[in-house]
From TrEMBL:
Any single Gene Ontology cellular-component annotation: endoplasmic reticulum membrane
Organism: Chondrus crispus (Carrageen Irish moss)
UniProt xrefs under Pfam families: Alg6_Alg8
Segments traversing the membrane: 150-172, 184-204, 210-229, 250-268, 274-299, 346-367, 373-392, 413-430, 467-485, 497-520
Lineage, opening ranks: Eukaryota, Rhodophyta, Florideophyceae, Rhodymeniophycidae, Gigartinales
Biased composition (Polar residues): 1-13
Membrane topology: Multi-pass membrane protein
Pathway: Protein modification; protein glycosylation
InterPro entries, per database record: Glyco_trans_ALG6/ALG8
Record's keyword terms, sorted: Endoplasmic reticulum, Glycosyltransferase, Membrane, Transferase, Transmembrane, Transmembrane helix
Primary localization: endoplasmic reticulum
Signal peptide: none
Protein's name in the database: Alpha-1,3-glucosyltransferase
GO MF annotation, one: dolichyl pyrophosphate Man9GlcNAc2 alpha-1,3-glucosyltransferase activity
Enzyme Commission designation: 2.4.1.-
């Protein structure tokens, strides 16, 4: 009987091996096949869980709640729905009696206006008074609030989560199977998606403060996925859509351009000038098609197009907005750059510093255009822009945050580091808008998820890096305390805020240097993370 049992087991094993060889994947096992479905269900659980977090945060106060006359970003988004629903697109950027640009005039690209029109239809269906022309200014009601909050959740479901899953799959996919739920290498897929889906900074900004950053970032993630999967025309189109939703996406442009130049050079060397020419034609055609469709209502007259550009790039707002954790705000305690230089010189200085600090990433990704370097370079260029560009606001840290966090499975320390520091850098904003409960809750959930899904091993000095990271985070939390319990001196009302943002800026500068080293060595901070999925049973 024992021999017969062993024989049957051997036969079953040989059948599995035969099927594996027939599939062309000798590593495929019966266990892998059984794990395929649970991974797909795990992604559903992750998205559902992150939606629940977002829904809970959306119960918190929003930007400008009950604070007339200008209110805040919630009122800005509602007002854009009002304008886009009642005025033709050609009038969105024109000052008129129906569109007072001094009152939250639209200053995002046309795709954001189109989205406001589509999502405004939902709000109009639920609460028509919330988007009536003129009479809806400052309109606040429980029903309209629920409708507005729902539109942010819906935009995440339609754009952000699909882009996140596709981008994560493109980075961690199996080289053999093209199925998105293949388990040869995508055991990292679920922890990476869970990490990015629970980023406190993004959740609090969109679902607490109230914005639609998930749309532009989701389109950017689609672009990264298409570039990595060698669908460059689709990647260029997606990146254009991301920029045409929020113009800050231009900060990714230098890295993506360098990446495509590197690919073009390889096509030219391997396939000749004809293939290279066709490659360029595909990219140009894709960009022109998306641009013409997006800006069509403003192409009939030069003045209309100029009015759009003036709204998108307002140089009169100054070097930075509020207290932001970048270099110019941090040194403003000692050096008042705005008093020393004229606005034109400030713009040139910021542009020069941004380009120079972006060069290491641009050159690296052009020399070796790999998926990891593409994400490191886009994140690095966006971080350089955050630190040195002109007209930066605190929420702009989301731009370098996303591409780096997609690399959580390969650079876990740096991903976790920038994730927490990005949240801490916006603590003064969240405190001002009464989001402290949501802040601590999302932060603790995110840290708990990292603790349960990531184990670092096989990296020299990993222990010291982890200790240094913990010390840095503890200091950041400690610097929150003065804002919570102390009253600043009357002659230095912003001292505690500047301590928070200045410390975050120092962390961002160190992260920037680590990224420069990483993109050139492909080794530092890449601690062979062993991602184990304890929250989701895959066996």
């Amino acid at each position: 009987m024992r021999q017969r049992g062993q024989s049957s087991e051997t036969t079953a094993a040989s059948k599995v091996a035969t099927v594996a060889q027939a599939d062309g994947n000798p590593r495929t096992t019966q266990r892998d096949e059984q794990a395929t479905i649970p991974i797909s269900w795990a992604l559903v659980i992750v998205v559902s869980f992150s939606i629940c977090i977002r829904a809970a945060v959306s119960l918190s106060p929003y930007s400008g709640e009950n604070t007339p006359p200008l209110y805040g970003d919630y009122e800005a988004q509602r007002h854009w729905m009002e304008i886009s629903l009642h005025l033709p697109p050609s009038s969105w950027y024109q000052n008129s009696s129906d569109n007072d640009l001094a009152y939250w005039g639209l200053d995002y690209p046309p795709l954001s206006g189109y989205a406001s029109w589509a999502l405004g239809k939902i709000v109009q269906f639920v609460e028509p008074n919330a988007v009536r022309l003129h009479s809806s200014r400052g309109f606040e009601s429980p029903l309209s609030r629920a409708a507005m909050r729902f539109t942010v959740l819906l935009s995440d479901l339609l754009v952000f989560f699909p882009g996140l899953v596709l981008a994560s799959y493109s980075v961690y996919r199996s080289p053999v199977s093209h199925h998105i739920f293949d388990t040869a290498r995508t055991t990292q897929l679920v922890p990476v998606v869970a990490f990015c889906a629970t980023l406190p900074a993004l959740i609090l900004t969109d679902h607490g403060h109230f914005q639609y950053n998930g749309v532009s970032l989701g389109l950017f993630l689609f672009a990264m996925a298409f570039f990595i999967l060698r669908k460059e025309a689709l990647g260029a189109a997606s990146l254009c859509l991301s920029i045409y939703f929020k113009q800050m996406g231009l900060y990714y442009g230098l890295a993506v351009f360098s990446f495509l130049v590197g690919r073009l050079w390889r096509i030219l060397r391997r396939s000749g000038p004809t293939s290279a020419f066709l490659f360029v034609c595909k990219l140009i055609s894709s960009i022109l098609l998306v641009s013409v469709i997006t800006f069509w209502p403003w192409l009939s007259e030069k003045e209309l197009l100029v009015s759009v550009l003036k709204r998108l790039f307002p140089v009169s707002r100054g070097l930075f907005e509020d207290k932001v954790a970048n270099v110019w705000c941090s040194i403003s305690v000692l050096i008042k750059m705005k008093a020393l230089l004229e606005p034109e010189m400030l713009i040139k200085m910021c542009a020069t510093c941004t380009v120079l600090t972006s060069l290491p990433f641009c050159v690296a990704v052009a020399v070796k255009p790999s998926p990891d370097r593409l994400l490191l370079s886009t994140g690095g260029c966006a971080l350089a822009a955050y630190l040195f560009a002109f007209q930066v606001h605190e929420k702009q840290i989301l731009l370098p945050l996303l591409p780096l966090c997609v690399l959580y499975g390969k650079h876990p320390l740096i991903s976790f580091w920038i994730s927490i520091v990005a949240s801490m850098s916006m603590f003064p904003l969240f405190q001002r808008e009464r989001l402290l409960s949501a802040y601590w809750a999302t932060l603790l959930i995110h840290i708990a998820l990292v603790s349960s899904t990531c184990r670092f091993k096989g990296c020299s000095q990993t222990v010291y890096k982890r200790i240094a990271l913990k010390v840095a985070l503890v200091i950041g939390v400690f610097l929150h305390l003065p804002l919570l319990v102390l009253t600043p001196p009357s002659n230095m009302p912003d001292i505690f805020v500047l301590l928070n943002t200045g410390y975050a800026c120092a962390n961002f500068c160190i992260i920037y240097l680590c990224m420069v080293y990483s993109v050139w060595t492909d080794s530092t901070l890449k601690c062979a993370a062993s991602l184990r999925i304890e929250l989701f049973s895959l066996a």
